[in-house]
User: Fold this.
Amino acid sequence: MDTIITFLNTTGKSFVGFSSSMLIQSSLLIILLLVLDAFLRKKVRLVFLYGIWMLLLVKLVMPTTFSSPTGLVYWIGDKVPGFITEAVSIPEKIASFIQKIKPMSETITSETEIFILPLTGISPGPIAETSAQLTVEASPATEPVSWQGFTLLAWLIVVTAMLLLLIRRMFFVRGLLAKSKNPSDSMVETLNRCRKQMGVHRTIFLRISRVAAGPSVCGLFRPTIIIPQNLLSRLKREDLRTILLHELAHIKRSDLCVSLIQTILQIVYFYNPLLWVANVIIRKVREQAVDE
Assistant:
């Protein structure tokens, strides 16, 4: 039990340190991106603006320090000034000094034992009992769970709950596809023409759903465009073509993969309120960039 608590406290301390650094760094980046968004919104293409916002996702998968292989210090460590390397070697010098004086302490101990040996006539009973008593009294108490450990546990609980909701959503979409119907031949023909126009060479599926609230696309490995059934009666051929081109643009730009990464990062860093705001903006810019 003590081992588990120690591991929890140690891991929690590392987690709090990493999370605090990431919270500060990502928040500063989001503020900077918000300023750039406001300044560049009407001056550049939305595709370019969307690419700028992708820097946030890159940051969230990068380390918060420079000591990893992706950091600067990792590659220039041999070029660090001499006074820094000398400062780093100070603990080694201290350890060497301790090793040198250790034989001296052993000699003093052995010489001291010469004066203790003649006292063997004293009854060792009370001394042994006292020693045992001191040993019992000196035994360490069970280490309590630190606040960092509780923070890690709370984070794990929230992340697990959010992942379960994500999995539930995935099963809902699978059920929606299972209950959907095949499109007409004319719709499939329109889809194939749009697919060739967009330069999408992979197979794209089309389904008609009674439950879907609006047109959408799902499936990383089996991209499927979903059209609500109640929308078909009001759609003209040109309107259907516009919808299909819009969804095909998402597929061509791998927006489904980016959206999944974005969702997972949102779950991991749920404690950052600015990230929730940034994700709303990213989704909005993504939709606008497709229609640009």
